[in-house]
Automatic annotation (TrEMBL), chain A:
Its cofactor is heme. One of its GO terms (molecular function) is iron ion binding. Belongs to the cytochrome P450 family. This is Cytochrome P450. InterPro entries: Cyt_P450 (IPR001128), Cyt_P450_B (IPR002397), Cyt_P450_sf (IPR036396). Keywords: Plasmid. It comes from Rhizobium jaguaris. Gene3D superfamilies: Cytochrome P450 (1.10.630.10). It comes from the Bacteria.
From TrEMBL, chain B:
It comes from the Bacteria. Pfam families: Fer4_15. Gene3D superfamilies: 3.30.70.20. This is Ferredoxin. SUPFAM superfamilies: 4Fe-4S ferredoxins.
Amino acid sequence: MVGDFSLFTSPGMQRIPNGDPHEAVARVHAGPPIFYSPDNTRDGRGTWLITRAKDQRQVLQDPETFSSNRSIFASALGDDWPLIPLELDPPAHGVFRSLLNPLFSPKRVIALEPSIRARAITQVEKISASSNSCEVMKDFAIPFTVGVFLHFLGLSDERLDMFVGWANRLLHGDKAQRSAAARAILEFIDELAALRRKEPADDFMTFIVEAEIDNRSLADKEVRGIGVLLFVAGLDTVAAALGFDLAHLARNPKDQELLRSEPERIVLATEELLRAYSTVQMIRVATKDVDFEGAPIRKGDYVSCATMIANRDPVEFENPNTIDLAREDNRHTAFACGPHRCLGSHLARREIIIALEEWLSRIPHFRIKEGTAPITYGGHVFGIENLVLDWS
Amino acid sequence: MHIIVRNAKCQGHARCWSQAPDIFKLDEDGYILPGNINVAERDEFLALRGARSCPERALEIDRSSDHITNDGVS
């Protein structure tokens, strides 16, 4: 049951120019539906790899058998505390989730829309006024998405570069860089929590330090677990999605023209782009020995549910490798499923829709700049860099 | 048409609501309100689309009885 596919080491997963890592992972569907991948984490650990959407749904909906309790961030520091709610299992998970859900509900996101849109417009107008070309990640996707997120947390844009640097080193650096970045983020969050205890403001960290669960305030570890998770989770996932989306539109002029001439299609198209260019791999830990669809999973084994694999499952999606911006009945799991469904999904989705709307209405027909090549990569969070768009 | 709502499976994706906000109502957390949903004939197209958009399979389309009233089963 050992397979040779890995999201880290297989062809198409390394940093390569003009890569298509999503198409590369889709090839696993030609093989066995579940297999053991001996080198499928950043640290070279093995995981079971669940390829079918139906099986991933079963794993992710069963937290009793497949736990999220890994302390992955803390373990990089030699500590042991969970990111909250990501690394908690029910029932503790539900307590924190109920606390945080209203802050990220669809209705709350509707209320945030005007300020998000204003931010997008400012960014795009700055770009269109100054040039006929830009590096979309650095000039638009990252400052826009990280700016929205920092504003949400109650932080100003001034230190945006520093935060993005931490996130890059945490997600893509070597072991020493990861530890240093984790330490920096942790100290920052602890200091911010202490500051908001002394000087409350109308922001997320104030909400957290003042929050109560089960008639008590949150413990320092809990405040830290929530703060660090929110900080890390919001820093590069939406930007990566936006990068892949704009690269797709640059390379597919018909799709670009469709959304340009009929912008009301952007909402539905965003779901298809989320499906086709999903970026996150979820990992669970088996809490007991279990024979799962014929696979002898043992207690402690890692189980990988990669969104970009389930979302290219031909049983779930007709012609999964055809990107059809008018696709209906699109039950993709770009935001995972089960109790850990991405808390920020409604915010993320809205950011992408707004970014595409404002970009397409202000930037004329664009393409990948001649002589340049975007760099793509696989791993825990797929990404794209050096995406130079040109509309001269 | 009738939609069986399996509340315990709802994880707040809100995809049903985004397709048909007048048919699928959410609570303050963004999760579906309990209770099965009777769908008027004129709303069937949108209701089907909403039910088929659920990544958790929390919404089941039931055409067997068009006369059952909303019984609050969850």
